[in-house]
Design a protein that fits this description.
heterodimer, A: 254 residues, alpha/beta, 11 strands, B: 202 residues, Rossmann fold, four-stranded mixed sheet, 34% strand
Amino acid sequence: MLTKRIIPCLDVKDNRVVKGVNFLNLRDAGDPVELGARYSDTGADELVFLDITATIRSRKTIVDMIRRVAQNVFIPFTVGGGVRTIEQIDKLLRSGAEKASVNTAAVQNPNLIAEASRRFGNQCVVLAIDARRSKTHPGHWQVCVKAGSEPTDIDVVEWAVRGEQLGAGEILLTSMDADGTKAGYDNELNKAVSDAVNIPVIASGGAGTLDHLYDAVVVGGADAVLMASITHFGNYTIRQMKQYLRDRGLPMNL
Amino acid sequence: MIVVIDYNVGNVQSVCNALQHIGCDAELSRDPARIEKAAGLVLPGVAAFGYAMDALGDAAGPVQQAARAGKPILGICVGHQLLFDESCEYGPHQGLGLVRGQVVPVPPEQTVPHMGWNLVELPPDMDLLAGLGPAKHFYFAHSFHGRVQDEQVRIACTDYGFPLVASIQKGNIYGVQFHPEKSGPQGLQVLRNFHEICRRRV
């Protein structure tokens, strides 16, 4: 049986982690390589690095950063943010990333998922979806693109199903309504998507307490939980999270 | 010196990084002379089977020869699958044929890909997995798996609704379906064991 995964997310801007500057007594807490190594050493199951600027210039920096991360991190990590082409994915994987996540570019050109999956295997292709509750259709969510700034007419559950059919190996599902609130994941959303697909779903957005992590798995049906604030600001260590979830009966790599 | 076979796919650098991290002299190459000279070979793999086999191309011959001559070889993930006779991922493809068996899809009743940390039972008679106790979690990321039909092969399994082959060993031929280079301290131990196996032979 697979363990449930704990995945800290590092938003990177100008070669610095944006959330989480003053914690863990690290001298340079904002350095993605140092922070990544720290998480890797303290029991995280995986890491996600998101290039939140995603410009031509930042892309070069990110590739260089990934090379350095890969020399210090011996757990899997995903890189995303502005990934648009097969060549970019190839470069990220060759630099040491285990997976690449696609978001806006996949919405604009769904064939990117199919091509990437055929070329690299579907386990390398993460479909990141930024979801927002629909104001007009209760119980539905709309896919947002361009770092969540642009809502589309695409239904999140339908898009997730299509993504799986095209060859995505995993769904990174971020609730834009819950993100940053620390009020808990949107488990209605998590449940709707995890029921509809057969690939793993990573719940993202809203983690504030250990209970929230448990609920994302048990209520939301998520295979993994992603968080930023609650680890970056030192509320809980990875070990505390895993211990708590294992004590409540979930299989954990601990 | 261990040669990590460079066949231009996916995440070969991670394997080199992990080997270097444990103090192993590792080199990325597909040059037949380097393959011949190496104490051991690592066949990494992040790609679809057919693509990987095509990319391996003319390096396949020297790898097969070295393995048949007794040089330790460790296949990782798709590299592990390439050791088998054939695979049906995106159509039928021939493998290296070093181990009898087929590469088949993980059954659709399970979440596919099999991705994440799973507990591997470690039999005491597999030297690749020595020093790790009776069971450890390793990181998996794959949609296909090797079905062994070779009586000379020793296997270690993980439970994924069925006994999924996590590691194989047939003389000098070793394979791991998981990623030791991404499995934290226990993964690094597997690589240390392989390094030791190569050193012993030299």
